Amino acid sequence: MSAKLFVLAGPTAVGKGTVAAAMRDEHPEIYLSVSATTRSPRPGEVDGVHYHFVSTEEFDRLVAEGQMLEWAVVHGVNRYGTPRGPVQEALDAGRPALLEIDLQGARQVRESMPEAVFVFLKPPSWDELVRRLVGRGTEGEEERERRLATAREELAAEAEFDVTIVNREVHAAVEDLVTLMVDSSSRP
């Protein structure tokens, strides 16, 4: 039985980062990839834990050297990507691995690693998604509107995924994801 790669994606503000952080805290046996990004840290984010915050030049180097499993420009502004090496090391060591990424990145991973299990994290409703985005208070009005426009497109991609988990409550979503990962990893 070999370890499997799981890809968690969904619309902006659905709680992907919150679910992934809870997964990291509650299930350290599962490898959680740390993405690289060119955006500035939000309050409380720690380099190397939440993201690898890199310059545009460093990101360009990683892409040029083929060191990114996937990467994308998100919300038309910043780039995010998954360093390939640590993910492959975890899988080779027999640990299930989880990528928490955006829709563009998930599509790239599907091209390069179609054997991965693709999980769509969905909000309980559109109104709840808007409430979460506004409630976190990390974006200005213009950025919020851009993210909501992106979220509408991202929600329409649900059918591209293998499984959908509704994020009504963080710990329930984590347990649904862990159950899926354990069940899927026990199958050949």
Structure, explained:
The protein has 188 residues and is α/β, with parallel strands linked by helices. It has a single domain (5-185), classed as Rossmann fold (3-Layer(aba) Sandwich). It contains 7 helices and 9 strands. It has helices at residues 16-26, 56-64, 84-92, 103-112, 126-136, 141-155, 170-185, and strands at 5-9, 31-32, 36-37, 52-53, 68-74, 78-83, 97-100, 117-122, 163-166. α1 (16-26) crosses α7.
pLDDT averaged over residues: 90
Strand content: 15-25%
| SS summary, helix count | 7
Total number of strands: 9
Q: Low-confidence segments, ≥5 residues, pLDDT <50?
A: none
CATH topology: Rossmann fold
- CATH second-level architecture: 3-Layer(aba) Sandwich
Give the overall silhouette. globular
CATH superfamily: P-loop containing nucleotide triphosphate hydrolases
Between the first and last Cα atoms, what is the distance in angstroms? 6 Å
Q: What Rg is obtained from the alpha carbons, in whole angstroms?
A: 16 Å
State the name of the first-level CATH class. Alpha Beta
The strand order across the widest sheet is 2-7-1-8-9
Compute the number of structural domains: 1
Give, in order, the helices and strands. EHEEEHEEHEHEHHEH
